[in-house]
Each structure stands twice: as structure tokens, then as C-alpha cells.
Write a structure and sequence with these properties.
This protein is mostly beta strands and about 180 residues long. The protein has a single domain, classed as Sandwich (Jelly Rolls). It is about 5% helix and about 45% strand. It binds 6-phosphogluconic acid and nickel (II) ion.
């Protein structure tokens, strides 16, 4: 009798996990009140529309253990602003994370505790080292799904309230594709 040596499996092209113990969460437009610059435009779009899905392996959240998940951020705009994740600091501020671009094109918005923001392009094969003490948000500037694999500490948690006033910059539609607006 051979032991079961089949590990979890992800399709690199789509970011889809094969069958297994998965946790899934869909974030819809109605969950993102106040996140986009043009709140009236958000209210005119269907609240049940899914903006992003997160699927993660159901592994241990204990100190020292790691979570693995994929975010699928759909293409679209609210007013002149590209679809994006809510964005967060980790509740355990010192905990970092690594993102890997799988498909689509977008941006990773990073912001430190001093409020200094910067962007990294996300594309197939891009690798993003998110340091500790750094908030992060994905933005889909392309016309297809943006999927990114992430690995982060099980103890990291999420602090959304610390960004209640938003990030220091927004990525808006422009004739060039996208442009940065500073709040
Ligand atoms: C995490 C990861 C990632 C993130 C999703 C959704 O720390 O869990 O950064 O899985 O949670 O991309 O983004 P929001 O948590 O900001 O909605
Ligand atoms: Ni995170």
C-alpha cells in the first residue's frame, strides 16, 4: 500500500486549484461601498456583481504556518477607476507576503505606514515581495481576469480599518490606458 503522495495542485495558466479542501470568498460591489472615488457610479452598478474571488487552501493558521491562495480580480471600472481589491495592512503588521502574477495585467499598490505609496506592474511571472508594515491592493488595468497567487503567514490577519481613509493614490482610466491620481 503506497501512501497518498498527491499534493494540492494549481493550474498556472488560470490560477484554479484542483479539487481539495478550499476556502472561497467572493467580494461584490455592494461590499465595496466608499472604496471607489465615484460612489454614485458604484451605486448605479448591480450590487451583486462579483468584483473578485479568493480561493485558498484550508491549511493551519498557527504561528509559523503559511497560507496559499489565489485572487481572481475581474476586469471593469467604477466611473473612471479600475476594479480593485479593498486592500489591507496585515493585523500583525510585521508579517510580509509574496504575490506571483499568473494571468492578466494590472498593478500592485503598496503603501507604508508613513503613507508613501508605490506601484508594481503585475503580469504572468511577476514576483512581488510585500515587506512587513506594508498595505497592499491589486488593481486590474487590463481587459481580462487578473489572477495572482499569494503566500502569507497564517497569523497575519487583516486590518482594513487602518485604510478607512483610502490609499494615497488611485489608478484611473486614461487615453494611455491608466494614470495615477493623488488624493
Ligand atoms: C491576504 C492576501 C490576499 C487578499 C485578497 C483580497 O493577506 O489574505 O493579501 O488573499 O486578502 O487579495 O484582498 P482584500 O483582503 O484586501 O479584500
Ligand atoms: Ni495580505
Amino acid at each position: 500500500n503506497l501512501p497518498d503522495i498527491q499534493p494540492p495542485q494549481v493550474d498556472w495558466a488560470s490560477g484554479a486549484f484542483a479539487d481539495g479542501p478550499l476556502l472561497s470568498k467572493s467580494t461584490r460591489l455592494r461590499d465595496l461601498a466608499g472604496i471607489f472615488a465615484d460612489e454614485p457610479a458604484r451605486q448605479q452598478l448591480p450590487g451583486e456583481q462579483v468584483i473578485y474571488d479568493v480561493e485558498m487552501l484550508a491549511t493551519s493558521p498557527a504561528e509559523g504556518e503559511l497560507y496559499t491562495g489565489v485572487t481572481h480580480l475581474y476586469p471593469g471600472r467604477v466611473g473612471g477607476e479600475y476594479f480593485m481589491t479593498r486592500g489591507h495592512f496585515h493585523a500583525r503588521r510585521e508579517q510580509g507576503e509574496v504575490y506571483f502574477g499568473l494571468r492578466g495585467n494590472g498593478l500592485l499598490l503598496l503603501q507604508n505606514e508613513q503613507g508613501e505609496a508605490r506601484l508594481e506592474k503585475v503580469f504572468t511571472g511577476s514576483v512581488h515581495i510585500i515587506p512587513g508594515f506594508t498595505a497592499h491592493r491589486l488593481i486590474n488595468t487590463g481587459g481580462e481576469v487578473l489572477s495572482a497567487l499569494a503566500v502569507w503567514p497564517g497569523v497575519a490577519g487583516h486590518d482594513y480599518a487602518a485604510l478607512a481613509n483610502g490609499f494615497a493614490l488611485r489608478v484611473m482610466v486614461s487615453s494611455e490606458g491608466w494614470e495615477v491620481h493623488h488624493d
